Amino acid sequence: MAKAWVFGDNISTDDIIAGRYLVQRNPKELAKHVMEAVDPGFAAKVRAGDVIVAGKNFGCGSSREHAPMALKGAGIAAVVAESFARIFFRNAINQGLPVLISKEARRGFKTGDGIRVDLERGEVLNTSTGRKFDAEPLPDFLMEILRAGGLLNYLKRMKGKRGLPRKKTAV
């Protein structure tokens, strides 16, 4: 069963993965240090399929793509937050990490509660208490990117289906 990991407001990209690890691009290596600034034992405790539930402005700070890479590498299945820094939100989608905005979910979870996230419907369920929370469903085009596993996979798939527009080189 997926477990919720609850964090507060303003979790920055430095909190998610410290700058000293940015020389690494391997998600599994980054995952060894994920969230260590706010929970030093997190990387050892988190399991594949777990979900982060957070407050406002999750992913604030620098625009590094390493932050969602580290979360995904650690097995985080989704991040549900009251709000996201815009660049983190888009980097997460581009890396294939689902993110959902729910204004109420954080107050309805404690770390360790069971959680189920329905991206299609925009629903977050606390399976420990039975409480359900609404989230803003993602637009179809973002869901397509997530289904492909990220933006690069999506673009490769689209190129194979119907071709991407060519850049005009003539004046």
Task: Note down, in words, how this protein is organized.
The protein contains seven helices and seven strands; from the N terminus they run βαααβαβαββββαα. It has a four-stranded parallel beta sheet with strand order 1-2-3-4. Strands 5-6-7 form a three-stranded antiparallel beta sheet, with no helix packed on it. It has 171 residues and is of the alpha/beta class. It has one domain (4-162): Aconitase, domain 4, CATH 3.20.19.10. It has helices at 13-16, 27-31, 42-45, 66-73, 86-95, 140-148, 151-162; strands at residues 4-6, 51-54, 78-81, 99-101, 115-118, 123-126, 132-134.
Uncertain spans? none
Q: Biggest sheet, open or closed, and with what strands and sense?
A: 4 strands, parallel
Q: If you average the pLDDT, what whole number results?
A: 93
The structure class reads: alpha/beta
CATH classification class: Alpha Beta
Provide the number of structural domains.
Answer: 1
Shape: globular
Q: So, the CATH homologous superfamily?
A: Aconitase, domain 4
Helix content: 25-40%
Q: What is the C-alpha radius of gyration, as a whole number of Å? A: 17 Å
Q: Strand order across the biggest sheet?
A: 1-2-3-4
End-to-end distance: 58 Å
Q: Any idea of the CATH topology?
A: Aconitase, domain 4
Percent strand: 5-15%
Number of strands: 7
Can you describe this structure in just a few lines?
By secondary structure, this protein is of the alpha/beta class.
